Automatic annotation (TrEMBL):
Residues 131-230 form the OmpR/PhoB-type domain. One of its GO terms (cellular component) is cytosol. Keywords: DNA-binding, Phosphoprotein, Transcription, Transcription regulation, Two-component regulatory system. Residues 15-124 form the Response regulatory domain. GO terms for biological process: regulation of DNA-templated transcription. One of its GO terms (molecular function) is phosphorelay response regulator activity. Signal peptide: none annotated. InterPro entries: CheY-like_superfamily (IPR011006), OmpR/PhoB-type_DNA-bd (IPR001867), Sig_transdc_resp-reg_C-effctor (IPR016032), Sig_transdc_resp-reg_receiver (IPR001789), WalR-like (IPR039420), WH-like_DNA-bd_sf (IPR036388). Residues 131-230 bind DNA. It comes from Aphanocapsa feldmannii 277cV. Pfam families: Response_reg, Trans_reg_C. This is Response regulator transcription factor. Residues 235-254 are annotated as: Disordered.
């Protein structure tokens, strides 16, 4: 290892949406991006992507060029975010066409995961929307430092609890199903609905003990999942409800 900064040290968590019809590929890509500290979610179709990002904007879209129900270019336009398009076509013409059509970058299949990660870092470096901190009432989440404070006092959370809290705050008030939370805060092929319930319980207790009120601001939505309720927060002189530089929230499953 050289003395250069690692990607996780260089960038705050960015919200990256991976869309590819091949389950293994999208899972591996999302997992590699999580290793860089990004909040990566993976879905198979444009419809699922739009549903996941309703009212939100990811920092970067990594998508197969051709999708079952759309194209990467149309999806990026609908989401309003930069894109890294993965194409299976050969020759220079398709790449030129995609770049001229608005793609931030194009990567030809098959590709190496390290090259993909580097291209994502380059695209994210161009943006100026990455945030280091999200504030919701008296609660502050420091993304770069991976720390949580309540009225400037630290709240000790495990990496999984931190990822779960980020998922619930992206944005606050949005109902997240157990499956969504699994995808956003757990590594692929790990955990289940019971794991979500258990982690929500421990997160609630820690936030309650820290002084965030009954339930720690986390509300159970019957037969739907969970949400972080702004109404449940203790009153403060001023509430800052800054969204995460875009919002997809998926979160780093460490």
């Amino acid at each position: 290892m050289t003395a250069e900064h690692s990607p996780a040290e260089t960038f705050p968590e960015a919200k990256v949406l991976v869309v590819d019809p091949h389950a293994t590929l999208r899972t591996v890509v999302a997992q590699r991006l999580r290793q860089d500290g990004h909040l990566a979610a993976a879905v198979s179709t444009a419809g699922e992507a739009l549903e996941l990002c309703e009212g939100q904007t990811p920092d970067l879209l990594v998508s197969a060029e051709l999708l079952e129900d759309s194209t990467a270019q149309r999806l990026a336009s609908a989401l309003g975010c930069p894109s890294l398009i993965l194409t299976a076509r050969t020759g220079a013409e398709p790449v030129v066409s995609l770049l001229d059509g608005g793609a931030g970058d194009v990567l030809r299949k098959p590709f190496g995961l390290e090259e993909l990660a580097a291209r994502c870092r380059s695209l994210l470096r161009r943006g100026n929307g990455l945030m280091e901190r999200v504030s919701v009432g008296p609660l502050e989440v420091h993304l770069l430092l991976r720390q949580v404070t309540l009225r400037d006092r630290p709240v000790e959370l495990s990496p999984r609890e931190f990822a779960l809290l980020c998922a619930l705050l992206m944005p606050p008030g949005m109902v997240r199903s157990r499956q969504e939370l699994l995808r956003m805060a757990w590594p692929p092929f790990s955990g289940g609905p019971r794991s979500v319930d258990t982690q929500v319980l421990t997160l609630r207790r820690k936030l309650e003990q820290a002084g965030l009120g009954e339930g720690g601001g986390i509300e159970t939505m019957r037969q739907q999942g969970y949400r972080f309720s702004l109404e449940a927060l203790p009153p403060t002189p001023e509430i800052s409800r800054e969204p995460l530089s875009g919002s997809l929230q998926t979160t780093l499953a460490s």
